[in-house]
Amino acid sequence: MFFAPLFKDARYFQIIFQCEFLAYGILSLGWNAEWGLYLTYLAVSIATQLVAETMLSRVKNNTYPTANKIKNGLPSAIISSLGLCLLLKTNDLSIAALAAFISIASKYIIRINGKHIFNPSALGIVAAVLLTGNAWISPGQWGSGAVILFSVLCLGFIITTKVQKSDTSIAFLGTFGGLLFIRQVMFLGWSIDFFVQSISTGSLLLFSFFMITDPKTTPNHAAARIVWAMLVAAISFYLTTFKFINAAPIWVLVAMQPLVPLLDKFFKANNFSWIKYNRHYVSRKKTYKAVVIPKQ
Amino acid sequence: MKKKLIIIGAAIIAAPLIMSFCGFYVSKADGTLKNKTSQVILVRDGNKTVITMYNDFKGDTKDFAMVVPVPVVLKKDDIKVVDQSIFQRLNDYSAPRLVEYWDQNPCYGNEALMDKALSGKVAGVQLNEVVVSSAYKKKETVKIEAKYLVGEYDILILSAKESSGLKDWLNENGYKIPANAEEVLEPYIKSNLKFFVVKVNEKEKQKLNNNFLRPIQINFNSPKFMLPIRLGMANADGDQDLIVYAFTRKGRIECTNYRNADMATDKNVPLFIQKNFNSFYGNLFNHQWNNEDKAVAFLEYAWDVSPQNYYHCDPCIATAPSEQDLIQSGVWWLGNKDWSDYSDVDNQEEDNGSKNVHFTRLHFRYNRRSFPQDLQFQVTPNTATFQARYIITHPATGDLSCDAGKKYLQELKQRRKKELATLSALTGTNINNWQDDATAKNDEETNPEVQYATLLPQVKSDSGQQKNLPAGMIIISAVLLGGAGLMRWKGIV
């Protein structure tokens, strides 16, 4: 692949694409660029990440975190804060700070079997909307222009294939879109453009390719992952269509994430690591084997 | 160099809530330039919605009929007729506005300030109407759920099992339904919507002794917060304008299935716009609408209009809607609760006792192509204020021969060139099209050097700018990827 040699860690691609979406919104869709809000998200996310990392090292080993450890954690914090920039709206910076804090802190506090449970940005969004009542999601902020449809699909796909989790996106989008098609076009008899309008909203595509795909908070086993994504899609469809809940997928995602450790228990597979192509990682494994086997 | 008023203006823009400034206004655009403009008042809190539909049907009232899909069977108490004038008041109050400032002569002290008021035109409105001529008859697939006489209207609530039956029923009963309406009726029926069918009761109408039809107000409980526009599109040719005046307790409303955009605001425009503000705003709306790819909800006004909130506008272009107007519009939480009325006893919405009222004005221009779905909304906690506001500045008068005066003229020249460029960019028209307006005699301008007509040829038309998206995106991508590549090469990531 063209991009393959550029980064070994796919998260850098994700940061680039998220920046592009933000730029698209500000430059082309005429959003009011709320730099104060964006900076708050970014600063609080990174600060929380650093503090949590430090506290963890102090408690565990009574040392300070290594530079590598910090470098490894930063992209995740940036991704989470960009996710908040793209989806969560508020006029109150303290709420923004709270959302960013909850996002990152949840990664360190709510953990089972070495995996955090909640997608950081999704949890931050849900917590801010629920707890404060003074933040909101704007499903209509993207519109449904063909440009965004095209770019989200392409860019999102590159990322997801890089981390080999495009199956989650496809399972979610396929199920959600399929159910909507059955309901809107086949059952209710709306014309095709009605259906296209429903699925080509930027928010839905952004969710499908950048949020539900987070490999750290989806089941490790491929089959379990697909079933889980389909379940998220089916419940989202029900809430959207029959309960008229806006931005349902994000709520459902957060509600369904506690199921992931359970699925991981029954469907055994290797934990995901972001730096899977890293040479050091591979060679260390080999050395480990080489040392252990002669001893037996 | 004194520019006192302009500085005041800047402070207001920065802090609209703290510093309010009622007075210097000139004119308002009715914002409605299409012949077909509907106006609707939406009031929403919890699951309760009140919809008020303006009615400016101009023909023989015998020919009037209206079909509106509603989510539930309405009770008689849920239907009212209200005073027509509230629409006028809401429109006047929330319409895009032109603000006027005066420069002070830098060579002398204060000049007297004055304000002028020009009145806007009344919005033309037409709701989804069909033609009616004979009496009702029943058919099996169509069920009359309820039948009421409210004010001057005969009202039927229909439910149907299949669209062709409903279509036949409506046709047989004299409601002329357009041929392509069936494509919309079927999904509505299958979504379990009821049909609110209205026509005029001639007897009652004659008693009223007026020559207009009053707006109909309905209220119901449903989690659906939407406005059906598709049925109206079926018999509409081309674009239709819709202005939504929304009132909520929490904050602004937003469209959830189309894009929301703020109307261009706080722009300095040439002085001559004052003469024809309506056509200026018409051009501007049309240009912005095309620019935003049409499928868009334009925000024209958002403000806290709670009766206890003193600062209602900045500047006011009309009297603020009174508490009585708001209650008439359907803002039920302002009125005294009628304790003998138990009809809302099982309402799930919590009555938090708050008397806040947030006013949002959205402007749509829809057509079948760009708007395949009905409009869906959500109430957000966004309480930020917004108004579509355009600024003109009168030049200083008198002798400007002092040094400061000469400097002022230079600045004025630059400012006016900028105003002309803004005008061209906002309306998307070639700058030369404004030649006539610019050359028209304006007695305020004494110095020919700074007259718009003189400056106009010096300003290059920059209409057709914007739309720089693909180039911009490519540049951003290149910069990001380049930066990333560099970081990789240097071993930073």
Account of the 3D structure:
- The complex is a heterodimer of chains A (296) and B (493).
- Chain A has 296 residues and is mainly alpha-helical.
- Chain A has helices spanning 11-28, 35-61, 67-87, 93-109, 120-132, 146-162, 166-187, 192-199, 202-211, 222-242, 248-256, 259-266, 279-295, and strands at 88-90, 111-112, 115-116, 135-137.
- A two-stranded antiparallel ribbon of chain A has the order 1-4. Chain A has a two-stranded antiparallel ribbon with strand order 2-3.
- The longest helix of chain A is centred in the N-terminal third of the chain and has 27 residues, at 35-61.
- The termini of chain A are far apart.
- The model of chain A is unreliable at 1-5 and 277-296 (pLDDT under 50).
- Chain B has 493 residues and is α+β, with helices and mostly antiparallel strands.
- Helix content of chain B is 26%, strand content 23%.
- In chain B, helix 3 crosses helix 4 (182-190).
- The termini of chain B are far apart.
- At the A-B interface, helix 1 and helix 8 of A face helix 4, strand 14 and helix 12 of B.
